[in-house]
Amino acid sequence: MLLREITLEDIDGMYALDSDPEVHTYLGNNPVTDKNQIVDVINFIRQQYVDHGIGRWAIIDKSTNDFIGWTGLKFVKELTNNHINYYDLGYRLRRAYWGKGIATESAIASLAYAFQKLNADAVYAMADTANVGSNNILQKLGMKLIETFDYNGSPSKWYKMDRETFEKRQPMGKGI
């Protein structure tokens, strides 16, 4: 797989991802209904690159050039679970790519980038409590479950990884 910045050329892949109701099962059940919504999302991500030096990345299948989904960091400036101005780890894949280890592998690269390139002190993540797959990935990464909280009416788990934990993890702490 290849990780790269998301561009407007990814509109069809992003639309295929975010218009799928199953992908949105644990994301508020509100899939997009037109590509203009995707243009707004891509523009937001591109502005994150400018403002914070980071944003979600496209995951591309190197052999087919297919848009798999996205992964990476977002700098969150809105208050979430009593936190503000923090790096959020996230990933979202098209259903055809679920269960293949891609989310885990791309999240490892994202954490390495956060701690080694951005010099972050901590990275946070959250997942709906019912989203077993995502919670398993976050735990497999070594992120520490801090608490369960209400996120937009859904019980969600709040995770954290600090620099020290990252550096102790093998092979994650080895570099990118």
**Unreliable stretches:** none
Compute the CA-based radius of gyration. Answer: 15 Å
Amount of beta strand: 25-35%
Strand arrangement, largest sheet?
Answer: 1-2-3-4-5-7-6
Largest sheet: 7 strands, mixed
Which percent range fits the helix content?
25-40%
What average pLDDT do the residues reach?
92
Strand and helix map with partners:
Layout: E1 2-5, H1 11-18, H2 35-52, E2 56-60, E3 67-76, E4 86-93, H3 102-116, E5 122-128, H4 132-140, E6 144-151, E7 154-162, H5 163-168
Parallel strand pairs: 4-5
Antiparallel strand pairs: 1-2, 2-3, 3-4, 5-7, 6-7
Helix pairs in contact: 1-2
Nutshell version of this structure?
32% of the residues lie in helices and 29% in strands. By secondary structure, the chain is of the alpha+beta class.
Structure characterization notes:
The chain is of the alpha+beta class and 176 residues long. The chain contains five helices and seven strands, in the order βααβββαβαββα. The protein has helices at 11-18, 35-52, 102-116, 132-140, 163-168, and strands at 2-5, 56-60, 67-76, 86-93, 122-128, 144-151, 154-162. A seven-stranded mixed beta sheet has the order 1-2-3-4-5-7-6, sandwiched between helices. A hairpin with a 2-residue loop joins strand 6 and strand 7. The radius of gyration is 15 Å and the shape is globular. The relative contact order is 0.14. The mean pLDDT is 92.
